[in-house]
Amino acid sequence: MLLRLRAYLTPTLRRFWYRHRHTLSYLKSFLDPLLSIISIIMDSNPVTEDAPQIQSVPNSDPPPFDPKEPAIPISYPLKTLEELQSRSYFHSFHFPFNKSRVKLQQQQSSAAALPQRRRMLVCHDMEGGYADDKWVQGGNNADAYAIWHWYLMDVFVYFSHYLVTLPPPCWTNTAHKHGVKVLGTFIMEWKEGRIMANKLLSTKESAQMYAELLTELAVALGFDGWLINMEVELDVGQIPNLKEFVSHLTQTMHSSLPTSLVIWYDSVTINGDLDWQNQLNDMNKPFFDLCDGILVNYTWKETYPKESASVASDRRFDVYMGIDVFGRNTYGGGEWTTNVALDVIKNDDVSAAIFAPGWVYETKQPPDFQTAQNRWWGLVEQSWGISLKYPQALPFYSNFDQGHGHHKSVDGAQVSGTPWNNISSQSFQPFLKFSGDSASDTIQVSVDFKEASYSGGGNITFKGTLDGDAYFKARLFQGELILGDLPVHFTYSVKSNDSSLLGLLLEFSSAMKDKKSILLASWRNTLLTMNRFSSQFSSVIMPRRVTNAEAAPEWIVQESSIAMGGYTLTEIHAVCYMATPLVTGSQLEPDGPNSSLALSQSEYSAVLGHLNVHMPSQNSDFPPSASWTVGGVYIKWSSGSEGSKKLSVKLMWQLKDGKDSAFPMFNIYVQKLVDPKLTDKMLAEVAEFLGVAEVEAFYISDLILPSATSSLKFIIQVCNFDGASQKLEDSPFLDLQVMRLPKTRSELNCDSAELAGRG
After folding, report:
1. Do the strands 459-465 and 603-614 form a parallel or antiparallel pair, or are they unpaired?
2. Model confidence over 235-258: pLDDT tens digits?
């Protein structure tokens, strides 16, 4: 029991100490007894030794984690320098699954440096890290934590209190999609941190070696660099090797990845003292001079941003003034007044670093996470402004998926009704404004996870009232898309009642400062629409094609085309309006979609399912099934209940020509085929959705097979950047015969070569 208590208290006390370390230091004379207790518990239970002590409780703890053994893929940190030096991570079963396949978006990848303006860094620090996000292939928590206000930041740091924090690929995939750089964390703290620091800094060569190993990890996993946090006391004689470590890590990262970043955290000083300066000054500037920036500790005073800017000179934007959202002695108090600190930083024209925005989630801010999150980030936007804009390139696609939900859909048809979470599944996130005053807007706009989706697990719903000729517009995206002479197609899906129409408003500007607004109107009432809106916008365009989703006819898919050579697309809005101001219920089209849901004239209800902006030449072209090689490895059969079997297998696929496929995502299905000799039941050969893969591999654990199942067909549905999905009948697949288990053996591991399939 004591061991269990210690195992629980150790990370809890560590987190408490870290978050309140400055306050506790100020009150040390009053808290020495408490600090002694905390020290005893943590010294007797170091982080790297937790697992063996937990396992000493018999018959109740899981076996120790063995990264070499096949298992549901997870992300995990490295806890010791020995792990780092041995390169054992690269031999882990989980390593291939943890690679990010999404390259940094063009707006930042065109130059090594970040934009020369004040920037926003967001440091994750959520519940110690590796929570729901550790499940690489996704989890089952529809309410899992996520960030979706990517357009407000430039850099995202994944943080935990382990030695080497490797960002789960879901964060890198999604951040890169939006143009945000991702850093891992290298941290040394506490007594064991000092011991590891002695080894790290024992020689110049050791400092260089560990720097090169960190570079190798970042490049292999596809993230963009490191936050260095040395929160330990050092001997002044170790400082030259620490400087060598920082310098060499920065140089090797830049050499391997020109767009990379290495940022120093304001902790140990040039004299070896653990003394947070809360500003850039002579005590920490030597480290700043060797890397790409400094994250200044969050207990600064009002004059410190300006003073730090003076010290940084022409590198003022590389100074990131920290703000602790939990409000621990942070300027302005954090929490709902985080914007107070942002206003000061903005006024002094340096960069900001928001630490622990998960406060909204962890403290269960009312009324619910979605509302509180949007409200909190809305305050950030009001203070700081928008950092990134999109679309900037084509094709551009969004299904408004936040990476969690209660169901999954493909082309309007629901393929899964199981709760899920996977931040990698986020598409481009809309720039929805949150006023915080529901009474001020006649239409309420929200991302909905329970309403049926056209694609993925989310959509944007518009509900409220509209009177007379009024229309309502909601910002969706702010872009910098330069258009050429060729036409651009806008395709979007809508589900609504008969009287509610939804269009798109596009805003453009030219080099000559000429501005235009074009309404892509909804598909009905052409004459009335033109008469109604032609005087309010530069142009009104009716859809060139309108179709119903094949699998879900309630979804109307509309496509319009424009040619705006020489102009830049700057904004995309949704426009809500009624079919006609004077229509009555009896005049509604009786056979229109969702006619049974028709509402009174003033009530508005519509759902936007997806948006695809593309050139005519960018239509999806999928390789035929025969172009792929599909195989299964790590195959394990075992017995289940009532004659059923269970299968675990790692699916792998690649193009036969050996080229890396550029496809961003794959949907995985299985068909369980029945031997008619084993049952008199007629079972439909339904494709069961298993999950989503971002790499060309997917691990299936303990798939239950009814006793009559004779064979399996695993289907790899290829998905493209424009949201298109290959038809299941044309997708690569693997046929697998169900193995008959020997009666004397309950489990059988099979040679992968024997059961490799074909595409």
Report:
1. antiparallel
2. 999 999 999 999 999 999 999 999
